[in-house]
C-alpha cells in the first residue's frame, strides 16, 4: 500500500527526520489559512500516488495569498496520469542548495534490506540507476543488527557529502531505517533530501510503500489507503481477503496459491498468451 507524501513525511518526522512545516488542504480557503500560518513563500503540492507531478503542473510555488488561492484551484482541477487531485500539501518553501537521494527498500536477491544514497537527488532514481548506476551508493543492512553508524558514514563519503553534514545525515539515515522497520515498509524514500542555504538537512519530499501482509498491525495506516489508484475489482477482492491484480491480457486466471498463480502466468506467456490478472484465492 502506497502512502501519500504528506503522511510519509509525518511518519519520518516521528522518527526525528526534519521536514518543512506544512499541512494538508482540500480547498483554496484551507490552503490560504495554512500559508498564512506557516509563512510565505509556500509550495503547493498535489497529493496523488504517481510520479511526474511537477511536469504535470501539480507542484507550484506561491508568494502571496492570492497566488495560493489560484494555484490551489488550478491543481485541484487537475487529473494527473488518470488520477484526480483531491487534496494538496502546503509546505513552507525551502532554500535549496543541494539535493540528495536517500532510500531503503528490500533486496530480494540478497534477502535483506538495502539503503541507497545518491548525489543525484530530485530526479527519478530508476532513471539514475539506468543511465549512471555508479552514482548510487548501496549498503545492505543486517535485519538483526540494524543500520550501523559506519554504514551511514560510508554512504556520506560515497556521495561526497561535506563532512560537516555527516552527523546530521547519519541521524536521518537511522531515522529512515526506524521508520522503515516500524511501519513494516517495503520502501521508505526521501527524494530529495536537501541541504538548505542555512546548512541544514531537510526532507522536502517523501514516499513510503507498506507491506500489505503487515497491515493488520497498522490499522490506522490501512484507513489511509487511496482507492483512486486501485481497480474496482481489486477493491472488491481485498474486501473478501483475496489477492488480485488486474493486468492487460485477455486470459483470466483463478488459482490456489501464489506460487502456482505465478507459474500459470509464466506458462501462458510461454505459449504466446497474456494473463488478464493475478489471482490467489488461497493455498492448501
Put the structure in a nutshell.
With 284 residues, this protein is α+β, with helices and mostly antiparallel strands.
How would you characterize the overall build of this protein?
By secondary structure, this protein is of the alpha+beta class. The protein folds into three domains: 21-92, ATP-grasp fold, A domain (Dna Ligase, domain 1, 2-Layer Sandwich), CATH 3.30.1490; 96-215, D-amino Acid Aminotransferase, Chain A, domain 1 (2-Layer Sandwich), CATH 3.30.470.20; 231-280, no CATH class. Helices cover 32% and strands 27% of the residues. It contains nine helices and 15 strands. The protein has helices spanning 5-14, 28-38, 65-76, 125-131, 149-158, 166-182, 219-222, 232-239, 258-270; strands at residues 2-3, 22-25, 42-46, 59-62, 79-80, 83-84, 88-92, 96-107, 112-118, 136-140, 185-196, 201-203, 206-210, 243-246, 277-280. The strands form four sheets. Strands 1, 8, 9, 10, 11, 12 and 13 form a seven-stranded antiparallel beta sheet that branches. It has a four-stranded antiparallel beta sheet with strand order 2-7-3-4, with helices on one face. A hairpin with a 4-residue loop joins strand 8 and strand 9. Helix 2 packs across helix 3 (65-76) and helix 5 packs across helix 6. It is globular, with a radius of gyration of 21 Å. The relative contact order is 0.14. The mean pLDDT is 92.
Amino acid at each position: 500500500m502506497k502512502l501519500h507524501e504528506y503522511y510519509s513525511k509525518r511518519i519520518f518526522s516521528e522518527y526525528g527526520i526534519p521536514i518543512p512545516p506544512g499541512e494538508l488542504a482540500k480547498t483554496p480557503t484551507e490552503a490560504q489559512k495554512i500559508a498564512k500560518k506557516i509563512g510565505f513563500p509556500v509550495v503547493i503540492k498535489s497529493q496523488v500516488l504517481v510520479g511526474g507531478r511537477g511536469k504535470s503542473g501539480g507542484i507550484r510555488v506561491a508568494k502571496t495569498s492570492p497566488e495560493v488561492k489560484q494555484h490551489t484551484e488550478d491543481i485541484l482541477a487537475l487529473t494527473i496520469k488518470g488520477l484526480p487531485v483531491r487534496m494538496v500539501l502546503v509546505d513552507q518553501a525551502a532554500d535549496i542548495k543541494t539535493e540528495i537521494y536517500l532510500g531503503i527498500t528490500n533486496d530480494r536477491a540478497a534477502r535483506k534490506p538495502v539503503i541507497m544514497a545518491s548525489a543525484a537527488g530530485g530526479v527519478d532514481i530508476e532513471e539514475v540507476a539506468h543511465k549512471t548506476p555508479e552514482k548510487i551508493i548501496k549498503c545492505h543492512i543486517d535485519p538483526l543488527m540494524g543500520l550501523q553508524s559506519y554504514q551511514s558514514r560510508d554512504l556520506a563519503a560515497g556521495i561526497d557529502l561535506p563532512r560537516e553534514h555527516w552527523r546530521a545525515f547519519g541521524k536521518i539515515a537511522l531515522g529512515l531505517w526506524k521508520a522503515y522497520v516500524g511501519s513494516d515498509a517495503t520502501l521508505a524514500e526521501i527524494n530529495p533530501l536537501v541541504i538548505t542555504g542555512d546548512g541544514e538537512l531537510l526532507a522536502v519530499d517523501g514516499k513510503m510503500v507498506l507491506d500489505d501482509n503487515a497491515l493488520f498491525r497498522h490499522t490506522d495506516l490501512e484507513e489511509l489507503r487511496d482507492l483512486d489508484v486501485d481497480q474496482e475489482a481489486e477493491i472488491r477482492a481485498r474486501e473478501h481477503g483475496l489477492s488480485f491484480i488486474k493486468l492487460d491480457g485477455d486470459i483470466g486466471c483463478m488459482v490456489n496459491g501464489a506460487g502456482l498463480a505465478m507459474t500459470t502466468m509464466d506458462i501462458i506467456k510461454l505459449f504466446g498468451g497474456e494473463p488478464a490478472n493475478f489471482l490467489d484465492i488461497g493455498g492448501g
